[in-house]
Amino acid sequence: MTPALEVIDLSKSFGGLQVTRGVSLRVEQGERHLLIGPNGAGKTTLFNLIAGDLQSGSGSIALFGSQVTALPTHVRAQHGLARTYQIVTLFSHDSLLHNVKLALLGKSPLRHRHWGLFDHEKSLTAHALEMLDSVSLAHKANLPLAQTSYGEKRRLEIAMALAQKPRLLLLDEPLAGLSAQERETITALLQKIERTITIVMIEHDMEVALAFADRITLLHYGEVILAGTRQEVVSDPRTREIYLGY
Amino acid sequence: MKRLLRVILVVLLLALLLCLPALAGAAYYTNLASQVLIAALFALSLNLLVGYAGLTSLGHAGYLGLSAYTCAWLMMNLGWGHLASACAALALTTGMACLFGLIALRATGISFLMITLALGQILWGLAYRWSGVTGGDNGISGLTRPSPFGIDLESANNFYYFTLLIFLLVWGAIAIWVNSPFGVSIRGTKDQPRRMSALGFNVWVIRWVTFVVSGFLGAVAGLMYVYYHQFISPHSLSLANSAEMLLMVIAGGAGTLSGPVVGAALVVLLKTVASAYIDRWIMLLGLVFVLIVIFVPGGLVAGAGRWRKRLEQFWNPLKEKP
């Protein structure tokens, strides 16, 4: 089977600082892949390279067998890539419903339409409410984003990403900054995601992340130190030395 | 209830606009109203870029100029008819907006502003220096107003109604556009361009289309401008004029449908009324702008909304804060 994501020998520098050094990564379809590494290991940079927010210096990226290395971000999204951000980047002046509807619009041919009220787009609204319901936010659909908690925003992020019916989902620290209870909510949400969606996740909460991951890649100073199954990576002494620190 | 109030307000406003020539009495006031509407057309077209796409442009007077000069030149030098020269002016200006968009949209923010400023100054320079074609500082004068369907627009009243019609058409078209799925995505690119690309929107194309539509509507306003004044000179393309348009948008409220109209009325009325009494009316304009920025930074329309809410709070203190 063609892998969901195949990164080969990817490099990226900002001036003299090389943040990604010859990274290769292969994620099978339906797999849950965890990226770990200390701060500054280049995990988010790798996400930005895969999503197209950054152009790589060298190397190649393929999504489901098709080369996307030179394609802009929005085309990669149309290839079935969706992501959440480490720092919440939502449409803060609008309602939760509006946010999810925009996510749906991005994948709908309706986005080319220049007439008709967006707010009255019934099919989008119904679908968006369904998505909000799946993250238990339907009752807050019409509230402006400013009146929601941080945890709710993170759930909204996930709802927006899933609304796009992605084939590959990049989750950048979905649990960061959440309370214990919110962590449980999000974890349950992530476990519910169907296996038709491949997931690559950056996460520091090892308890949750390890239970979730099939395979793990350890990054350090922009390099892949180690890649393998959960067992292999966890029991490797280098993981302890570089990342777990005990 | 709120909806009913809004409908009543709109009907009243329309009635007022329709009866204005009768109420005004003298042609002077009717002409003033036409000027306000034409300025509002400019502000509305610029607002698409500034308010909706979040791209502040300082070269919008260039569209006014190109459209007005093209129309005037074709009529005066080649003897083209009104319809043909108007269409040519719109086509040429829109074409130029396509090209300028390609150049200016390589950047956003302050760099975008500087590029539009430079492009606008090029057009101004052309109008000023290329005197063989543009008449230099003297500009082009002597063209007539069109008479669509045999209605003579030389009369102040008829011209006012014609301007009102164009204004309502443009306003309606913009209102529909910015609330359409595409229009909503324009606002999205203003707030979170990065997220918009990640969601699958082609941010660059959305911006470019907005840029071109803004230029086209600027050209429409330019035609009305040259028909009204029956004269065009480099002064109309100057940076001061671009800045004045931007002032209208910001003072009234960028990113709203009524803000640019309110701003245009404010600037034109202030200019006309104040300049009759004081020589340094530009200073007064500057003062008003500073006051607006300090006290109602979102513009008069947004400010009015806040005051209304405060009043409601005052009358119904028990009502929960939204």
Describe this structure in words.
With 246 residues, chain A is α/β, with parallel strands linked by helices. Chain A contains nine helices and ten strands. In chain A, the strands form two sheets. A six-stranded mixed β-sheet of chain A has the order 6-7-8-3-9-10, sandwiched between helices. With 322 residues, chain B is an all-alpha fold. Chain B has a domain at 23-237. Chain B has a two-stranded antiparallel sheet. Chains A and B meet through helix 2 and helix 3 of A and helix 7, helix 8 and helix 9 of B.
Summarize the structure.
With about 250 residues, chain A is α/β, with parallel strands linked by helices. Chain A has helices spanning about 45-50, 75-80, 95-105, 120-135, 150-165, 180-190, 205-210, 230-235, 235-245; strands at about 5-15, 15-25, 30-35, 60-65, 65, 80-85, 170, 200, 215-220, 225-230. Chain A has a 6-stranded mixed beta sheet, with helices on both faces. Chain A has a 4-stranded antiparallel beta sheet with strand order 2-1-4-5, covered by helices on one side.
How many strands of chain A?
10
Radius of gyration of chain A: 18 Å
Provide the β-strand percentage band of chain A. 15-25%
Write the element-wise H/E pattern of chain B from the N-terminal end onward: HHHHHHEHHHHEHHHH
Q: What gap, in angstroms, lies between the N and C termini of chain A?
A: 38 Å
Cα end-to-end separation of chain B:
17 Å
Structural class category of chain A = alpha/beta
Determine the structural class of chain B based on helices, strands and strand pairing.
mainly alpha
Order of helices and strands of chain A: EEEHEEHEHHHEHEHEEHH
Biggest sheet statistics of chain A: 6 strands, mixed
Largest interface: A-B, 35 and 22 residues
**Uncertain runs of chain B with pLDDT below 50, 5 residues or more?**
none
Apparent shape of chain A: globular
Strand order of the largest sheet of chain A: 6-7-8-3-9-10
Mean pLDDT of chain B, as a whole number? Answer: 92
Assign a percent range to the helix content of chain A: 25-40%
**Sheet with the most strands of chain B?**
2 strands, antiparallel
